[in-house]
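Re: that chain you flagged

S.,

Sorry for the slow reply, it's been a week of failed gels. I finally had a moment to sit down with the sequence you sent. For the record, here it is as I used it:
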Amino acid sequence: QVQLVESGGGLVQAGGSLRLSCAASGSTFSSRVMAWFRQAPGKERGFVAAIGWTGAMKSYADSVKGRFTISRDNAKNTVYLQMNSLKPEDTAVYYCAAPDTSIVRRTDVAAEYRYWGQGTQVTVSS
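Prediction finished late last night. Pasting the structure tokens below so you have them in one place:
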């Protein structure tokens, strides 16, 4: 069983930055891919970024490449999402996700992830 708790969301002006954190429970955190997804009102939940268990593998949605950075600290069971140069279109609820096993075929597919946090709201004003 894995429990995920996100924090760090808020209201920021366009061009600003935020850092999201996701604290995970469970001893198998360090062996799993972790990911961030987001969902804007009226839209489907979409992939943002994923990171492999060593931190060497990272993948990003095209819309956030060069602006967002995913990282993890396995000693703290925490994954982060540093968001820079924020745009109004980044406004959404951001969710942390973890799979049920250490094997994930498609890191950008929500169905690959079993465990989800409650979400944290990010609002970017123009």
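What I noticed first: The CA atoms of residues 47 and 109 lie 7 Å apart.

Talk soon,
D.
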